[in-house]
Amino acid sequence: MAVAVGLRAGTAVQGIEETSARALAKLEHVLPHRLQRRVNALRDAVTAGPENTASNVDDPVVDPSLLAEVAAAIRDHVELRFDDTRDGREDRLQLEPYRLVSWQRRWFVVARDPRSDSWAPYRLDWLRLRQPAGRRFTPHPLPGGDYTAFVLREVAFSGWSVHARIAVDAPAEDVLARINPTVGVVESVDAQHCVLVTGGDSVEIVAAYIGMLGLDFHVTEPPELVQAVAALSERYRRALR
Question: Which of 129, 16, 24 is nearest to 67 (CA)?
Fold first, then answer.
C-alpha cells in the first residue's frame, strides 16, 4: 500500500481512480515513519512521460518492491547492481540511479555507469536486482538536465523491442511537424529527405504508426517490419474491393 501511495503521488497509475486517490492521500498522513520515507522516496524519484498509447503487446509487470528499492537508492545516492535479463542474457551492471521515469506503460531508471561515465535509461522489467547494493556515490548532473526528454530520446534508439530506421521522402521539418516528440528522432539527409529513427513493442505497431505520417516512406529492415508493412498494405487493398 505504501508503494501505491508513493506512485499515485508521483505520477498517474492505471487502475487508481480519483476516489481512491483521495483515500490514499488521507492514508499517507498516518503512515508510520518508515513507510512515510518509502512514500516520499517514490514521490521524489518518479517522473511521468507523455500520455500512454495503446499497444497489442501485454504490459510488462514490474515488482512494486523493486520500484521502492530503486527509489530508496536514488534518495540515498547508493549504487545498484543489476542483471540484465533481456533476451535470455545475464549481463551484470553496476549503476548510479538518478530518476525513475514512467512512460508508455514502461518503467525506466535513468542511471550513470561510473566505469564509462555514460548515461542511459534502463527498462526495469529487463533488470533483476542483485544484493547487496553498492557503495554511496557523489551525484553528477545529467547532460541537458531533463530526465524525461532524455528517456524519450534514448528509447527511440535502444529502449524498444523493435527498432527501425525509416527513410522518408520529405524534409526533416515536415516529419517533425507531424509526429509527437515521443515517436522518435528525425535525422536530416538533404533538403527533401530524412530518416525517422523509431521503434515500438511490435512490428505491427511500427507499421501502423509510420503509415499515419501521411508521407511517402521506404522500409528495408528489419525483415519482420518489411513483412508487416506488406501485410498491412494488402489488408488495406482488400478493404477497397
Answer: 129
